[in-house]
Amino acid sequence: MTASVGMTAPPRAAGRGPLAGARRAAATVFAAQGAAVAAVSTTVPAVASHLGLSPLAMTALTIALTLAAGAGSFAGLAAVRRSDPVTVMRAAVLTTAAALLAVAWAPGRVTASAAYVLFGLALGAIDVSVNTRVATVERHYGRSILSSFYAAWSAAGVAAALLTAGVSRLGWPVEYVLTAHAALVAFLALTVRAHALPPALSPSGPGAAPTDEVLGRRVWARLVPFGVVLLVAYVVDSTVAAWSTAYLHQTLAASLAAAPLAYAAYQAGTVIGRAGADLMVRRAGPVAMVRAAALLTAVALAGVAAAPSWPYAVVAAGCAGLGVAALIPLCVAAAGRLRPGAPETVLARLNVFNYVGVLVGAGASGGLGATGHFRIAYAIAAALVLIPVATARFFRPGGLPPRSL
């Protein structure tokens, strides 16, 4: 998920009033999406058992969900143009709650598959609508507030994973587990309110249309290193988020109550990492931060792959979240600086790497897991995450000279 950066609008009073309310509403939607994704990810083994689905079938459903999310982003964009972001994001979050209920009470595999596709469509619509709203809110603040939204997403994921673990330990069947999640997501949706904001100044001045700025070939060449790092980060993210619960349950013999703890630890690591990332970047610089984050993530994923039992995997997953947490916001910030006059246009292209990374991570890891080789999947992810170490030099302020591209 991306939002605009590089704003030059003057800061406004943000402690109260419609601007603060708009920020809280957007953060609530991020939290609702994080909780919904966690609900699906942490119930994979239970849903597979309930519906009699093979690991390969669950992998196919995960890929279909991701493809549906891509389609949902285009549908959401069309809806935003016809209506407004707040209406669309509220409706999309309510749709995710309905999709969770449909998965929970699906009478058969076909219905459950349709519910997963509906869930993916709703996630894509949330992405485009909430980021449109965040872009407006950020311009009013006059500074990047991206990390706070990611933190809300991750914190909600932790809470949802712990909810799955808690109610599973009580012996609840998956139908009731997903129903509890759906109720939480629906409640968050109902708290979202619209807040009227004055028109924000565009980065190029009143009346300018930043999205019409032409992006030259040099910009695209400079975008690729950030896109590659983002792709790798989302391969890691989807590998841990989509399959850590199944890995703990199938390979490490964790119970259905303990299996979601790796997901919870991973998201907790991202919350901690994002809370301190800005300070670390100011002290060490983005290049050193990217390299350190990549190395930490690689070591942590190797630990997940080699874990002798599920408690070790939980600790390693938390360390992986700590490392990945810094990579995604740094990519977004660096890419947004390529064209301060058209950040939304650049970041929209950057988001393509996001979806590719999710597809690769979810598909490849699920395929390996279906054949009983989850350890290999995490080992491959550990090797891939070393790529940012080589591309970190592109993250220095001002980038590299054109001849270095």
Keywords:
14 helices; disordered C terminus; disordered N terminus; 2 domains; globular; Growth Hormone, Chain: A; mainly alpha; 405 residues
SSE layout and pairing:
Layout: H1 17-41, H2 44-51, H3 55-82, H4 85-104, H5 109-141, H6 146-169, H7 174-190, H8 217-250, H9 261-284, H10 286-306, H11 310-336, H12 343-370, H13 374-384, H14 387-391
Helix pairs in contact: 1-4, 1-5, 1-6, 1-7, 3-4, 3-5, 3-12, 4-5, 4-7, 6-7, 6-9, 8-9, 8-11, 8-12, 8-13, 9-10, 9-11, 10-11, 10-13, 12-13
What does this structure look like?
The protein is mostly helical. The chain folds into two domains: 16-194, MFS general substrate transporter like domains (Growth Hormone, Chain: A); 215-400, MFS general substrate transporter like domains (Growth Hormone, Chain: A). Helices cover 75% and strands 0% of the residues. The protein contains 14 helices and no strands. The protein has helices spanning 17-41, 44-51, 55-82, 85-104, 109-141, 146-169, 174-190, 217-250, 261-284, 286-306, 310-336, 343-370, 374-384, 387-391. Helix 9 (261-284) packs across helix 11. The radius of gyration is 20 Å and the shape is globular. Keywords: Membrane, Transmembrane, Transmembrane helix. The chain crosses the membrane at residues 25-44, 56-80, 87-106, 112-130, 150-172, 178-198, 219-236, 248-266, 287-306, 312-335, 347-370, 376-395.
